[in-house]
Amino acid sequence: EPFVADEYIERLAWRTPGGGSRGGEAFDPKRLLEEFVNHIQELQVMDERIQRKVEKLEQQCQKEAKEFAKKVQELQKSNQVAFQHFQELDEHISYVATKVCHLGDQLEGVNTPRQRAVEAQKLMKYFNEFLDGELKSDVFTNSEKIKEAADIIQKLHLIAQELPFDSLMDFCCYPLSSSGKYHDLECQLIQEFTSAQRRGEISRMREVAAVLLHFKGYSHCVDVYIKQCQEGAFLRNDVFEDAAILCQRVNKQVGEVFSNPETVLAKLIQNIFEVKLQTYVKDQLEEHRKSDAEQYLKNLYDLYTRTTNLSSKLMEFNLGTDKQTFLSKLIKSIFISYLENYIEVEIGYLKSRSAMILQRYYDSKNHQKRSIGTGGIQDLKERIRQRTNLPLGPSIDTHGETFLSQEVVVNLLQETKQAFERCHRLSDPSDLPKNAFRIFSMLVEFLCTEHIDYALETGLAGIPSSDSKNANLYFLDVVHQANTIFHLFDKQFNDHLMPLISSSPKLSECLQKKKDIIEQMEVKLDMGIDTLNCMIGQMKHILAAEQKKTDFKPEDENNVLIQYTNACVKVCGYVRKQVEKIRKSMDGKNVDTVLMELGVRFHRLIYEHLQQYSYSCMGGMLAICDVAEYRKCAKDFKIALVLQLFDTLHALCNLLVVAPDNLKQVCSGEQLANLDKNILHSFVQLRVDYRSARLARHFS
Q1: Is residue 385 part of a domain?
Q2: Which segment, 47-61, 367-381, 537-551, is predicted with the most confidence on average?
Q3: I need a surface site. Which of 135, 507, 516, 618 has the fewest CB within 10 A?
Q4: Are residues 39 and 103 in the same domain?
Q5: What is the pLDDT of residues 161-198, one digit of tens each?
Q6: Residues 564 and 536 in one domain
């Protein structure tokens, strides 16, 4: 603990008797002073003793420091001597090493020619045995030393080929030629490789393959390996699956046997494609190529798809640097003769198949397809008939048949869908948009022109004249089915054609062709507006047959029990059916357009019809009830203009029953204020009491 003088003195005083007031003891300053003096003397003695001890330790430390410095100097001298000795030893070792290396070079210079001379002597000995025709050496007679014998034969063969004189070469090389030991040993090695492969001895196969690597027959060894690999590999019906399994198995083994596994595996795959697959494809396609186009196209698509799928699996293996190009060339070599004219076969089949589907449908309906005139006199007749409502020549009776079939459409679209799929798979990328456009043109020709357009033309020709009684309006059924079919056509256009042409100039051409088709059909649908004339004609027949003059001028004004006339009930029922039919037959804005036109004509018909009768007070009330019912019917149109017209007509009918004194007030009402006064006057004139002086005076 740190020394504090005040605390030390306090403790000393406290321990001294009389140095404080402890225990009631009196304070004795003399005694305390004496204690302090004695204690100071003790401290001085202690200080002198400690000082002497410090001086002694300092002297001892100085002495030891001198001794240590002397010892360090001696060690430094010893280290310098040792370092000099190490340098001398290193120089000596370097000198000795140089001498040893030089001596080694000299020994190698002497030994290498000696070894070559020994090897040359051995080769000359073996060569001499070949010249003598007697092979006595153990290396040739012992079958277990076939590897050493192969090495010797290979060297002798190379030497024999380099002999300068033709005669000597012929003489010396004959024993080593294709009919000599070289060929025999090569055949023996290949046979050994074959046997090892059959036994499944991978190590022996690898050893023999390494020996054969320097022989001419190495490629033959690879061929034998490839041939044996395929033995028993193609026993099932699925040659593509067999090929994939075989390549998977060989890929694991070939790296353990050959030094160039990627080359061997590529050669195996090439052999499979050019032999097995090409033969299989040819057998499958040539059988139907000329006799059955449908089966031929299905087989071609299936075989090409399975071949490309096999190629995708083989891409996992190491086949060299550019395996994509390698496999593409193999596929092209198999299918090139079939793909060159694929699109012609496709278009020919699609054309004949589509024509057959349509003809089979028309035959089932016992219908002989006829040519419908679309120009010249026919157009003139149509325009005159529409403007005058006069029948110029009889209309075609379709007997309620629309000549549109969902089954036919589904079959045509299905055939075209399959054609698009085959086109995508089998066409060259540069020809794909062009080929897809040709298929689309076939679809347009047979579905849109030969089927939908023909049905529309026939439906137009079958529209009865407006004065026909009990006319059946089948054209709306044609419109309904044509609309549904075109939605299916448009879906296939977007789902199957667009992906094939989306990035090519053919896109704009296809869109324009589709636009022309739509416009052409819309023109024919617009021409079918004549159907509305027939509807109005039917309403006229109902009104003429059911409406009686006595309906609005009953004999007994006080005994009228009906709420509205029978003619009104039947007309409203007919109109509601036609509105529902139009909604089912059309979609989008076309529904509102047609219903607006029908509603306006319906209003005009009722307006003109009401102008034909005179109305008593009770008859006017009945007319108001009829118009109210017509107005309810008009609400089904959901067209604001039509409802407004009938609201106005209902207000006009109020003029038939209002009291003479209130006529001016009613005419100035919100709904009638903007009408021509002549219209108001014409309705007032229909009142039975119009000629009374009072009514005429009030209205004027």
Answers
A1: no
A2: 47-61
A3: 516
A4: yes
A5: 555 545 444 544 444 443 355 566 677 777 778 888 88
A6: no
Amino acid at 71: K
Give the closest residue to 349 by CA, choosing from 262, 438, 452.
438
Q: Are residues 556 and 685 in the same domain?
A: yes
Helix-then-strand count for the chain, H and E: 29, 0
Strands (E), 310-468: none
Domain final residue pick, 110, 132, 154 = 132
CATH code (residue 691)? 1.20.58.1970
3-state SS of 385-412 is HHHHCCCCCCCCCCCCCCCCCHHHHHHH
Shared domain for 114 and 23, answered yes or no, is yes
Measured CA angle at 464 (ends 459, 465), to 5 deg: 135
For tokens 């002086």, what's the residue? 693
Instruction: Tell me if 179 is assigned to some domain.
Output: no
- What is the rounded distance in angstroms from the CA atom of residue 497 to the CA atom of residue 364? 31
Same domain, 692 and 565: yes
What DSSP string runs through 211-225?
A: HHTTSTTHHHHHHHH
Q: Tokens at residue 290, please?
A: 């000329």
What is the total count of domains within the chain? Answer: 3
Confidence of residue 112 (pLDDT cuts 50, 70, 90): confident
Give the burial class of 312: count Cβ atoms within 10 A of its Cβ; 0-12 exposed, 13-18 middle, 19 or more buried.
exposed
pLDDT bracket for residue 414 (50, 70, 90): very high
Q: How many other β-carbons are positioned within 10 Å of the β-carbon of residue 212?
A: 22
Give the distance, in angstroms, between the CA of residue 1 and the centroid of all CA atoms in the same chain. Answer: 88
Rounded (10°) angle between helices 475-492 and 406-426: 20
* pLDDT > 90 fraction of the chain, expressed in percent and rounded: 29
* Structure confidence at residue 115 (pLDDT): 73
Bridge partner residues of 687 (DSSP): 615
Q: ∠639-579-479 over CA atoms, to 5°?
A: 110
Which of these three, 499, 517, 540, is where a domain ends?
540
Quick one: tokens of 429?
Answer: 């990328």
Beta-carbon contacts of residue 601 (< 8 Å; ≥ 6 apart): 532, 535, 536
* Interatomic CA distance for residues 205 and 250, integer angstroms: 14
Residue 581, Cβ density class (10 Å: 0-12 exposed, 13-18 middle, ≥19 buried): middle
Asked if residues 446 and 386 have their Cβ atoms less than 8 Å apart, the reply is: no
Task: Report in angstroms the alpha-carbon separations of 160 from 164, 174, 549.
Answer: 9, 9, 133
C-alpha 219/C-alpha 299 separation (Å) is: 36
Q: How far apart are CA 382 and CA 533, in angstroms?
A: 13
Domain encompassing residue 587? 547-698
Same domain, 591 and 625: yes
User: What's the pLDDT at 538?
Assistant: 86
Q: Tell me: the pLDDT tens digits for 28-38?
A: 788 888 888 99
Residues 568 and 527 reside in one and the same domain: no
Q: Count how many Cα atoms sit within 13 Å of the Cα of residue 102 in the half-sphere of its side chain.
A: 6
291 part of a folded domain: no
Residue 527 has a pLDDT of 74
In a domain, 19, yes or no: yes
CA dihedral over 541, 546, 550, 551, signed as positive or negative: negative
Claim to verify: residue 23 and residue 71 sit in the same structural domain: yes
Token duo for residue 134: 């007697």
Output the CA angle 586-590-593, nearest 5 degrees. 130
Length of the chain as a residue count: 700
**Torsion angles phi and psi, residue 608, rounded to 5:** -65, -35
132-157 pLDDT, tens digit each: 555 555 555 555 555 555 555 655 55
Range in 15-29, 423-437, 606-620 with the lowest mean pLDDT: 15-29
Give the residue among 239, 237, 153, 156 at the shortest CA–CA distance from 188.
153
Tell me the backbone φ, ψ of residue 622, rounded to 5 degrees: -65, -40
